[in-house]
Design goal:
Ribosomal Protein S5, domain 2; six-stranded antiparallel beta sheet; Ubiquitin Conjugating Enzyme; alpha+beta; four-stranded antiparallel beta sheet; 45% helix; 272 residues
């Protein structure tokens, strides 16, 4: 018992305020370590000839680190400190070194995580920039009003069905158009890379409207464009006049194509 007391006194003197002993617990030490670790060391019967000290992590930066610290320290203690010799000083040094290692690894991981997050943000920003650069321009024509119903046509260059879908999705996502009775009545014509002509149309609930728009595209020999008409219902039935307005706004915006194709600039979409 005297040799253990001497070893404890030596360790307390060696590590100073970082090593304390609770009153009434002569075989127990509390060790304050780097990175907010605190270790409780208890010397069991049979120490040091037959048993290693019992270890308990009293505090740690977080639960996962507490578990890692305890597991690694137990392993290193049994691998590097043989039975049969006083081991407290070496054990405390092992614990200090391990705490510093875990602190360094923790900060490196946080820095690595921050770097990965920054890279992800930068990549997202670049992707958004790319999408903006590659975004299909959409032009909107003049709004026509008849008995509180409103009609407006939109025009966009397209070269694939996917681009048509992109234009339709963009218009449907526009809060200015979302309350329309028929936000996307559309028709398109384009040739693919092999010179094959593609065309289609959709009424969006305004039965018979889109086929008339498709006919107009064909008559004007329009290729490489989708035309979309948005109609807001004003509460008064217009009868056949609604088709007159749909065809009118469609034709008006299609007739702007030659001028647009002369322009090298990327026009901004105009909302009326």
């Amino acid at each position: 018992m005297e040799s253990i007391e001497e070893e404890i006194a030596m360790v307390r003197n060696l590590f100073g305020e970082d090593c304390t002993q609770r009153e009434g617990h002569p075989r127990e030490l509390w060790i304050r370590l780097p990175f907010s670790f605190e270790l409780e060391i208890t010397l069991p019967a049979g120490y040091f000839e037959e048993s290693h000290p019992h270890l308990f992590v009293r505090s740690a930066p977080n639960a996962p680190l507490a578990g890692s610290f305890a597991a690694i320290l137990h392993q290193r203690m049994r691998e590097t400190i043989p039975l049969g010799t006083p081991m407290l000083a070496l054990l405390v040094s092992l614990a200090q070194d391990l705490a510093r290692e875990l602190e360094e690894g923790y900060h490196e991981e946080r820095e690595s995580l921050a770097a990965r997050e920054n890279d992800a943000v930068a990549a997202l920003s670049q992707e958004n920039d790319r999408r903006e650069r590659e975004a299909i321009p959409i032009w909107s024509g003049t709004v026509v009003v008849d008995r509180r119903s409103r009609f407006v046509a939109h025009l966009a260059p397209v070269g694939s069905v996917e681009e048509v879908k992109q234009v339709i999705a963009t218009l449907r996502a526009d809060r200015h158009l979302s309350d329309a009775a028929h936000p996307t009545i559309w028709a398109y014509r384009f040739k693919d890379d092999r010179g094959v002509l593609h065309s289609d149309f959709d009424d969006d609930g305004e039965t018979g409207a889109a086929v008339k728009m498709a006919f107009l595209l064909d008559q004007l020999k329009v290729e490489g464009y989708v035309v979309v008409v948005t109609r807001w219902f004003g509460g008064i039935l217009l009868g056949p006049d609604r088709f007159k307005h749909i065809m009118g706004v469609t034709k008006d915006i299609l007739l702007t194509i030659p001028e647009r194709e002369k322009s090298k600039s990327q026009p901004q979409r105009r909302r009326d």
